[in-house]
Design brief:
single chain; alpha+beta; Ribosomal Protein S5, domain 2; Rossmann fold; eleven-stranded mixed beta sheet; six-stranded mixed beta sheet; about 35% helix; elongated
Length: about 625
């Protein structure tokens, strides 16, 4: 940073510089959204001051009527958006306009594809919609005075990598943004075009939006162009789908349309109004570890907070919209919301209505619900683990991939397709769907026509710990040692299994001797048809995928030994069994035993315990085979 007597020059944060470069060069066809974003920011500024003024009325003394003003000056080629909201001081300008402070910056930058149309659609939902101004302006000036401060500050940038900040003068609190409109964007200096944009995107804004223009050096009379009433307070019959979509995009800073809209008023023991949306696309912060919901809480149409952990459960954090309470006091603080009995009752009621709406969607529009599940299923499944009260309902709507086909299936569908004699719901956990389908543990099940659920979300291993069975059928991992397939062949489960032949017994003994404590046991299996070996967990041990997951996050203080299972029908195992019956077998089978174990590890998506030793043994074996 270099500083003169009054003007400070700053470089943009690297992420902002890249974003601005994208904005300046944007060829996005709907550049008009810049105005929606600036109006939305102005509305948020008024909301925040209205809340702060509840405890400090002096902040709005003499100017309590909030408003947003838009002024077009075609001769000067400027478009001005002004509000009398909370305003910003010097530090706020640097924090809000010079950096991307919101969590998830890395995820946002990773989403940028280089395709302007796709990339611009990300900026609003990430909360950096201000920078959309550079799609139509070659210079932007922001003059702001924070409520309660005497000093105003001016932020200026041409979007080319730096900005300046200097002291300024402004009558009253709030923010004034002046866009110096580029020659090829003159449409945004036409009041008729501006009026259309405001009524299309911002008609629901609760504060009056005034539009005027400068003619012959004089400002024309201001015209109010929006209805200025909170959309959620209107009866459902009076709200169009287009108005719902516009409000969703405002509330969620989004560019998609809602996949599901829930608008209702609750009356009785508690009174509140809810207007909630399920997005079509995943918000960028969906998997942020903070798991912050983004629904806004209002009290009697006064904005309170958008930090609504106590109102919306973490597994519904993809919701966007508002909840407006009639019962909470207007002076409620964000801290007072914690453990508030009214908020607790609202949380229970809102959660129940949302889950019921998802159930209805799943029943009435299966294809539409499948799309919702594709985006938010991994998050909704967190509720199976956390929300015991609604666990049954969530299990009912849950969708899964399985070996039955490529589409989604439900647990109800799975149960209807179970084979005679099958007493468990079988599943395999893996890092992704391809790894799940490649698992050697599936072989014995697919050869018998037994369906297996393919679970690929990290949360799966956790909710399964809370749900041992469903409709009387136990959940059973195919990677556990107790998966007995003989009963699925129509055989008597109580009948004795045929004993391994003498050579196979000798081979098992040799493998145990060579592997020592690297495995818990070595035994034959009927779960394999094409693979020679696999690793399984003992019945009382942790599932293989859960063990890997915890190990990756350094949350596992020990690692349970696995069981090595061998396929007696595989040519390699048969050849090794024949060799085991010959003199010197213990020495001869040392390296093959370690190679089998490493092969089993590789099939599980893991590295050999000693990659260098594995490579050496494999090279030696290949050399002998080619000799």
């Amino acid at each position: 940073m270099s500083t003169t007597e009054t003007v400070e020059k700053h470089e943009f944060q690297a992420e902002v510089a890249r974003l601005l470069n994208m904005m300046v060069r944007s060829v996005y066809s709907e550049t008009e959204i810049f105005l929606r974003e600036l109006i939305s920011n102005a509305s948020d500024a008024c909301d925040r001051l209205r809340y702060d003024a509840l405890t400090d009325p002096s902040l709005t003394e003499g100017d309590s009527a909030f408003r947003i003003a838009i002024t077009a000056d075609a001769a000067a080629r400027t478009l001005t958006i002004a509000d009398n909201g909370i305003g910003m001081n010097r530090d706020d300008l640097i924090a809000n306009l010079g950096t991307i402070a919101r969590s998830g910056t890395a995820a946002f930058m990773e989403k940028l594809s280089g395709d302007s149309k796709k990339d611009v659609s990300l900026i609003g939902q990430f909360g950096v919609g201000f920078y959309a101004a550079f799609m139509v302006a070659d210079k932007v000036e922001v003059t702001s005075r924070k409520a309660g401060d005497a000093q105003a500050w001016k932020w200026t940038s041409d979007g080319q990598g730096s900005y300046t900040i200097e002291p300024a003068a402004r009558d009253g609190r709030g923010t004034t943004i002046v866009l110096h409109v580029r020659e090829d964007e003159s449409e945004y200096l036409d009041v008729h075009r501006l009026r259309h944009i405001v009524t299309t995107y911002s008609d629901h804004i609760a504060f009056p939006i005034h539009l005027s223009e400068v003619k012959d050096g004089a400002v024309t009379e201001e015209e109010s162009v929006n209805k200025g009433s909170a959309l959620w307070t209107r009866p459902k019959a009076e709200v169009t789908d287009e108005q719902y979509t516009a409000f969703y995009r405002h509330a969620g800073h989004a560019f998609d349309a809602p996949a599901l809209t829930l608008h209702y008023r609750a009356e009785g023991a508690i009174e509140y109004t809810a207007l909630l949306f399920v997005p079509e696309e995943r918000p960028l912060d969906l998997f942020d570890p903070a798991r912050k919901p983004r629904v806004k809480l209002y009290v009697k149409r006064v904005f309170i907070t958008d930090d609504t952990d106590d109102l919306i459960p973490g597994y519904l954090r993809f919701l966007r919209g508002v909840v407006d309470s009639e019962d909470l006091p207007l002076n409620v603080s964000r801290e007072m919301l914690q453990n508030n009995p009214v908020v607790a009752r609202m949380r229970k009621a809102v959660t129940g209505r949302v889950v019921s709406a998802l159930e209805a969607k799943a029943k009435d529009d299966a294809d539409g619900f499948d799309k919702i599940w594709s985006s938010f299923g991994p998050v909704i499944k967190e509720g199976i683990y956390e929300d015991g009260e609604r666990r049954g309902a969530l299990l009912k709507i849950a969708r899964f991939r399985s070996t039955h086909g490529d589409g989604w299936t439900t647990l109800g569908d799975y149960l209807a397709r179970m084979k005679e004699g099958q007493d468990a719901i079988y599943y395999v956990s893996a890092p992704d769907i391809d790894a799940a389908r490649r698992s050697p543990h599936l072989e014995g099940f697919t050869s018998r026509g037994v369906e297996v659920l393919l679970l690929t979300d990290p949360v799966d291993d956790f909710w399964l710990s809370m749900v041992p069975e469903h409709e009387g059928k136990a959940f059973r991992s195919v990677t556990r040692g107790g998966a007995d397939l003989s009963k699925l062949d129509g055989k008597d489960e109580s009948a004795e299994k045929p004993a391994d032949d003498a050579r196979m017994v000798t081979l098992i003994a040799a493998l145990k001797h060579a592997l020592g404590d690297q495995v818990k046991d070595v035994r034959t299996t009927d779960r394999l048809t094409g693979s020679a070996v696999c690793l399984v967990a003992d019945d009382g041990d942790m599932d293989l995928n859960l063990q890997r997951l915890l190990k990756q996050h350094n949350q596992l203080g020990f690692e349970a030994q696995r069981i090595l299972e061998i396929n007696p029908g595989h040519p390699l195992i048969a050849a090794l069994a024949e060799r085991a019956d010959q003199p010197g077998a213990l020495d001869a089978l040392g390296d093959p035993a370690l190679l089998l174990l490493d092969q089993a590890r590789i099939l599980e998506g893991e590295l050999p315990a000693d990659p260098a030793a594995f490579a050496r043994r494999l090279a030696d074996l290949m050399a002998k085979g080619l000799a």
